[in-house]
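haha ok so turns out i had the wrong file open the whole time. this is the CORRECT one, sorry everyone. sequence first:
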Amino acid sequence: MEHPDVITHKNGRQRKPAGVPPPPGNMRDVDRRDISAFEPEVEEEAEGLIRGSDSEDRRHGRVQPGIRGELGNVLLLLFLYVLQGIPLGLAGSIPLILQSRSVSYKDQAFFSFVFWPFSLKLLWAPLVDALYFSRFGRRKSWLVPTQYLLGLFMLYLSVTVNSLLHSEGGPKVVTLTAVFFMLAFLAATQDIAVDGWALTMLSRENVGYASTCNSVGQTAGYFLGNVLFLALESADFCNKYLRIEPKDTGIVTLSDFLFFWGIVFLVSTTLVAIFKRENEHSKGRRRVQQETQGVMETYSLLFSIIKMPTVFTFCVLLLTAKIGFSAADAVTGLKLVEAGVPKEQLALLAVPMVPLQILLPLIISKYTAGPRPLDVFYKAFPFRLIIGLEYALLVWWTPTAKQDGGFPVYYYGVVLLSYALHQVALYSMYVACMAFHAKVSDPIIGGTYMTLLNTVTNLGGNWPSTLALWMVDPLTSKECQGAVGQSCGSTEEAGLCVKEGGACVTTLDGYYVESVVCVVIGLAWWVWLGKKMRRLQEQSPSSWRCRVNQ
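then structure:
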């Protein structure tokens, strides 16, 4: 899951995405899932307050207290972010489970809307900041009900998920999408509340730990809900590595996993609601102050930013830049599962990628720190397009590499190397884009400004991925072999072909058509619009300044 994702609080604070590497089985862009590993950061406004607080403390000769006194708050934040990552990880595992049940790619496209809420949460973040019960607490007013609903949805799914996945007519994708969309929506809302609470739960000198809790917690939660679940759910994996006597099922089922975490959500939320006071203040500790801004004022500010010619042009470029990568990012992992690669093995390949995904931003940031960060974006663009073609070759080669006992070690080595190269190109573009966002954002409203640009960036990855999944089936050609006069143009026709003793054979896989078309579109974008994006770096700072401040 493309991962990802920035939210704006009432006072304009923003947070960069933090979290978890998408497993190769998803091949989703890190931008989309608010889930990629970056260096710890401090909220810009909070950092300014901390500096002011530090200066004041030095003048008065006060000694800064350490983290020990707030270890309980840090652990609570860490736990809340872990809970947030669980439904995200589960949502990322469902497409692989659906693919193993041979659902259509149109169904996969429909389910991909589940990954949209984290990219769109800017739309309702001002409401979460502005509407609350002061007696219960500004953040708890949203955190408690959303986590209760998350727990209840998980308990509901634990009872119904088997029937939804194993119904006679195939998996009920519409119902699964609706339920998991609500899970993602609630997790995004919980993220807004926890982000805001983190800045006031910790003292000013320790507020920087909030981003660490976010990164580590989301990573751990996504790993539990995706990689660990897929491994323990797989009978083959459990029989091979964890059992003495083989069985037909894994150690856990999806129903069991959902039930366990549903109970955890309900119990932990009840404990937080009863025992954790939101407005408590520790002796001698200074808290980050909360500012107030109206809901309509925030929306008006966002509209003023996007109306600026340079910002509007940049947003159009961001919304179209990732079309060339959509087939590789959204479809490749599913095609590998379709070709027989175990989904749990693909998920486990994400583990050795974690160190790379931590180091890459640190290395790339050295080249994006100058006045022209988008030059790195432009140079990495064709490299990532070539990797898309290499992914198509990998999918084509996969059936040939399969052996009686599965896939050899060298095959997974090739997949791992391909994924590593993909990550280098992806992170080069992402870090360059984030650096440019920071460079052009109006410092007076930097949080809101950057949040808007990051949201557009995430949407620029969402819609092409959904469209790429949707177009695989229409671009695929099949013919009925073994039954005269039959065809395989639709599900009904394919059924008649099988009924007459024939078999539908793919003569042209739409994935390969799509891969070539996407690369051609990407090259055209790079030649014409890529240069236009580079020229935006030559615009004067005043052209990026919001007119509301002039």
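DSSP finds 20 helices and two strands in the chain.
again sry for the mixup
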